[in-house]
Amino acid sequence: MDNITKKKKRHIIRPSRIILLIVLLAGNTFAWFIYATKINTDVSVHVRAWNVVFESGDTEISNDISIPINNVFPGMEDYEYSITAYNRSEVSASLSYQVLSARIMNQEYVSVEEKRRLGLTINEDDLTSLELEDMLANDFPFSITIDTSSQTISSENGQETFSLSVVWPYESNDDAADTLWGTNAYQYKQSNPDDPSISINIKITITQNAS
């Protein structure tokens, strides 16, 4: 075999090599797709963590959050949970919320709005979000209140705070209620040491205003 024939054989591309090249290319493309998907998921999780940020283009961000209060009792230290929303877009934004449900020890309350969203049967004695919020603030010896620093978040790095607080003074001026709910709270915690005594589920919505 002369040198020219040998050189021609070296330059022949075998079909097996072409197939291998296609497989490697496809594998790299799939790996990039998975990587990009993970990046998008991370961004979504970051938004749901509710360091809420508007950059541009979005018209609404909403999130369902669950706020657990692990232990409640008369004279407890005041509890507060807060979220700060940031607006970095060029237009202002509006902040609103709905109380979806609340569990007080063994008693579960689901708002009309949440039942409607879930397609559940709505009964006559079911409470709306506003009525449920009012009940949490006024119908127990402890008070669960929700507040926002403002319902409008200004443009260009404006920020507002959403907060929920629980206050149960040692004496609420209702000895019977203090005794009843203090006993309930103690017995519930004894039976359910790993569960929060109170859980509040809330939907927070932020909408960019028209420019």
Keyword list:
211 residues, 5-stranded antiparallel beta sheet, 4-stranded mixed beta sheet, 9 strands, globular
Q: Could you characterize the architecture of this molecule?
A:
The protein is of the alpha+beta class. It folds into 2 domains: 3-47; 52-208, no CATH class. Helix content is 36%, strand content 31%. It has helices at 3-10, 15-48, 112-118, 129-138, 175-191; strands spanning 53-54, 60-69, 79-87, 93-104, 107-110, 143-148, 152-153, 158-167, 198-208. The strands form 2 sheets. Strands 2, 4, 5, 7 and 9 form a 5-stranded antiparallel β-sheet that branches. A 4-stranded mixed β-sheet has the order 1-3-8-6. The protein starts with a helix and ends with a strand. Mean pLDDT is 76; it is low at 20-51 and 54-58.
SS content category = alpha+beta
Helix content: 25-40%
The count of β-strands is: 9
Strand content: 25-35%
Shape: globular
Largest sheet: 5 strands, antiparallel
**Total number of helices:** 5
Rg calc: 28 Å
Order of helices and strands: HHEEEEEHHEEEHE
Poorly predicted runs are 20-51, 54-58
Average pLDDT metric: 76
The N- to C-terminal Cα distance equals 80 Å
Number of domains: 2
